[in-house]
């Protein structure tokens, strides 16, 4: 009589161990993107459940945390898609404006975030800054006052690195609406970060 089914069942992980080892990291990852503690908790719970159901496909390839974060990223994207379907875009929240200087001649967005609108420190090492817990908290606090769809657009573009076409599909907005939202988010975040992060060093020297 084969004992393989029993052996396989013994290999199933204990989700409480995942929660103890990776729960805080996963929660912070979700909270930064969803900006709501209850939604972040739900996303982490859904991630652990999905991971348990799909554990047979993991097989120890790569780190367990990286695998869990990959699942969580899909859960976060599912939330954005649901929100995009359930809450149609309101033009009054991020209404279009006629500033042609923000567009290249062929109609593409002129990314001032990478030019004069971006602090030198942000342009230089964005990945390194995001690894600093304190900066991560400051950026999250700067994102929180933004309109929900605007903050979502910035998160999907600058944090997740999604292409514009996919962001438009996820949020249910036009390319023009997306350009406007990103511009406004970058301007407000630039101001907030200069006051609460980049400007602190200068203030301390005075």
What features would you describe in this structure?
With 206 residues, the protein is mainly alpha-helical. It has 10 helices and no strands. It has helices at residues 4-10, 15-34, 37-53, 64-86, 120-124, 126-130, 133-143, 148-159, 164-171, 175-205. Helix 2 packs across helix 3 (37-53), helix 7 crosses helix 10 and helix 8 (148-159) crosses helix 10. The chain is globular, with a radius of gyration of 20 Å. It starts with a helix and ends with a helix.
- Radius of gyration from the alpha-carbon trace, in angstroms: 20 Å
Mean pLDDT: 75
Counting DSSP H or I runs of 4 or more residues, the number of helices is 10
Please trace the helix and strand order, writing H or E for each element.
Answer: HHHHHHHHHH
Low-confidence parts = 1-10, 94-124, 202-206
How many β-strand runs? Answer: 0
Largest sheet properties: none
How helix-rich are the residues, as a percent range?
55-70%
Question: Given the C-alpha coordinates, what overall shape results?
Answer: globular
Strand content: under 5%
State the end-to-end CA separation.
79 Å
Structural class, from secondary structure content? mainly alpha
